[in-house]
TrEMBL record:
The keyword Protease applies. This is Serine protease. The keyword Protease applies. The lineage of its organism: Bacteria, Bacillati, Bacillota, Bacilli, Bacillales. GO terms for molecular function: serine-type peptidase activity. It comes from the Bacteria. Gene3D superfamilies: 2.40.10.120. Keywords: Hydrolase, Protease, Serine protease. It holds the Pfam family Trypsin_2. InterPro entries: Peptidase_S1_PA.
Length: 262
């Protein structure tokens, strides 16, 4: 399976009674056992009792086949990141993975979190985001949407002392929970100026959480008889996405290890 195919087959569109977002399969490999989860943002499933995802099935026919998986009791089964301000949660996907060999899916693991390699990147790198902006999906083929951009801050440095970085890309509703990758299919130049022509490079950088906004004072009304000006405050997207560092997923590994009966 090539890199693009892996990116494509590891994401799912999450549909709840209140919202649509993006999630992706992540299997925590601990002590020889596999613990499959769907990773997304806390706010995607906040105050929701259930959600559903549509997963492609392996098929020899031209007509794509899919299966709907429903997750009930989300509040009681999900793991929230232990830090309140980290907008990540993990939803157990054990039942879905029981039929793994019938499904046309892929997943990430801890081995895809390469912290040292990320720290050695340039400040500006080409990136891809995979997900469902505005809920857009190729329903017939059950395929997500790719978007391209660049890093706006270094992906291995804490932005304002938080494990996040910014990307230069338009972020919309539905993109929450989307994985973000560095992908150079035909070569790259490292931070020391060394060129690697024809060498593929692929790194999982993090998870989209939000669109960075700025407060904008907009003129509303002015009365010449009053020495005062009224303003309204609106929020304007400035095409900067807030991405949570991939290493924050390791928090769930520790939670799994601390589970009763582990």
């Amino acid at each position: 399976m090539d890199r693009i195919e892996k990116m494509t087959k590891s994401v799912v569109r999450i549909v709840t009674e209140k919202s649509i977002g993006t999630g992706f399969f992540f299997v925590f490999q601990i002590g020889g056992d596999n613990y499959p989860f769907i990773i997304t943002n806390k706010h995607v499933v906040e105050n929701c009792n259930s959600m559903q995802v549509v997963v492609s099935k392996k098929s020899e026919m031209d007509n794509p086949e899919t299966e709907i998986f429903r997750f009930d009791g989300i509040k009681s089964i999900k793991l929230d990141h232990s830090k309140h301000n980290v907008d990540l949660c993990a939803i157990p996907a054990i039942d879905l993975f029981k039929t793994y060999y019938e499904l046309d899916i892929s997943y990430l693991t801890q081995s895809d979190i390469r912290i040292n390699e990320i720290k050695d990147l340039n400040f500006v790198e080409d990136i891809l985001m995979v997900g469902y902006p505005r809920g857009v999906i190729d329903e017939y083929n059950n395929l997500p949407v790719f978007r391209k951009g660049i890093t706006a801050t270094h992906p291995g440095i804490k932005f304002n002392n938080q494990k996040i970085f910014l990307i230069d890309m338009t972020i919309t509703n539905g993109s929450s929970g989307s994985p973000v990758y560095l992908y150079n299919p035909n070569g790259y130049t490292d931070r020391l100026g060394n060129s690697f022509l024809g060498r593929e490079r692929f790194l999982f950088l993090g998870i989209n959480s939000a669109d960075h906004i700025m407060k904008n004072k907009s003129y509303i009304y002015k009365d010449n008889n009053i020495d005062n000006t009224s303003y309204g405050v609106s929020e304007i997207g400035i095409n900067l996405g807030v991405i949570i560092h991939a290493e924050e997923l390791l928090d769930f590994e520790e939670q799994i290890k601390n589970m009763e009966g582990f």
